[in-house]
């Protein structure tokens, strides 16, 4: 077991759980448990750099992981927050959604300093570098550093820093997504707000481009869209639970909204037939325009998730107020 400095201050050892604890998870895979005050926690598997749990102060799970998820390499874990890198989709010889989500990451014991110091001890730094096998299918050298942190108030924060370490002087390009599965009461009770009037690519129609016409996204059938030029905040409103997830993001201009519905759910071996009712994916992403890095350049993509006890009709959180300060002005949208 290890922790980030627990018990260093004062003569008495702390009486509560360690803020960072290394444990064994499903099938003996290594994982890290992060804990904050009260009962707030998160779990990160080194396999995939994959967040599989995020619990609030009541101990309630906020992320969805399928009961049929296969915690066995090389199969990616179904649910939580898979990391899609170096591609989102299934083009070319790379596997669908890239290889980062089914590689064993290492604990980064000496990460370069972050621009902003963290106010919590409940965080872990991970690092992924390409293997010889990776270089055969994607011939680019990189360092991918990932910090997963729990804020004192329970927010879950993921920061990705990807650096081009090619020695041959060549740039590389990639697409990316935090493929976040949220746990919800029922898909029929969900509204996603903040993407109104935006253009999107419909993955169910060969990425044909449309403009969102609704005042919110609601779910009545399979939905798989890439919204473009999205604001830095998006709200996911769960009427039945009277809870709103707030997605904040940086460096990630796109947002994927996905629910497989019944037919596709039944076709997935690692997903329960009816589990589509209890999950929705809203993913901070960079897909339409690939990110290109020259050797030595670094890209940063940030995701911050909050869960607010409210709903669109409670008056406690007006979704318009949640997102109005970050909506892109019409004249700046290309």
What does this structure look like?
This protein is mainly beta and 334 residues long. The protein has one domain (20-328): Beta-galactosidase, Chain A, domain 5 (Distorted Sandwich). 5% of the residues lie in helices and 37% in strands. The chain has three helices and 20 strands. The protein has helices at 132-137, 261-267, 319-323, and strands at 20-24, 30-35, 41-45, 50-55, 83-84, 106-107, 123-128, 142-150, 156-164, 172-178, 181-183, 190-193, 199-202, 208-211, 223-227, 233-238, 243-250, 254-259, 279-293, 298-308. The strands form three sheets. Strands 5, 10, 11, 13, 14, 15, 18 and 19 form an eight-stranded antiparallel sheet that branches. A hairpin with a 5-residue loop joins strand 2 (30-35) and strand 3 (41-45). The longest helix is centred in the C-terminal third of the chain and has 7 residues, at 261-267.
Identify the notable features of this structure and list them briefly.
3 helices; Beta-galactosidase, Chain A, domain 5; 334 residues; eight-stranded antiparallel beta sheet; disordered C terminus; disordered N terminus; mainly beta; globular
